[in-house]
Amino acid sequence: KNEVEQSPQNLTAQEGEFITINCSYSVGISALHWLQQHPGGGIVSLFMLSSGKKKHGRLIATINIQEKHSSLHITASHPRDSAVYICAVVGHHGGADGLTFGKGTHLIIQP
Amino acid sequence: DSGVTQTPKHLITATGQRVTLRCSPRSGDLSVYWYQQSLDQGLQFLIQYYNGEERAKGNILERFSAQQFPDLHSELNLSSLELGDSALYFCASSPRGGGVSYEQYFGPGTRLTVT
Prior knowledge:
The structure holds two protein chains of two kinds. Chain A is mainly beta. Chain A has no helices and eleven strands. The interface between A and B is medium-sized, with 25 and 31 residues.
């Protein structure tokens, strides 16, 4: 079973700061997802990665398959980025790809 | 708006009862996933269907069952409900076909409260 660890669990930063959230996993995967969950409960998919780096606006996600590690970066953070960020992985299950989730990082950006 | 719909939004019921949660995937998506989010367990994968067939099972209890219909909508049936079943239940969908992982699109969730 894959164990997914995220750090930090909680992060409070000032508007404009560069944010990094880390995710490590224990077993080889076929893909890794970064998700965002707002206080209302809705979950939004930010990225799906199997290698390298992806960028969308102020968000950047990287993955190092050999080290079993991924990072999510937020540049020029803004109060609207306040949310829970969740890392989730997909194992090699022969076509099945239910996600295994980390416990999430609760991010608060103060104005 | 992800394009995935779930009904109902909220459900309050008593212990021992049975409920059905419904999910309609994005147009064209063949895979449907069910997830449970509780305060103590976090997010957990329950079950996946692909084009009407069960594809994978996660931490789904025997009291729970699901199915995907020919029009690709899915239902999650929860029976003999216990207080610990109170949680947010999410459905997600993806195009998913043949050994390649795709992004998953989440519905708004159904909040189940068992009293």
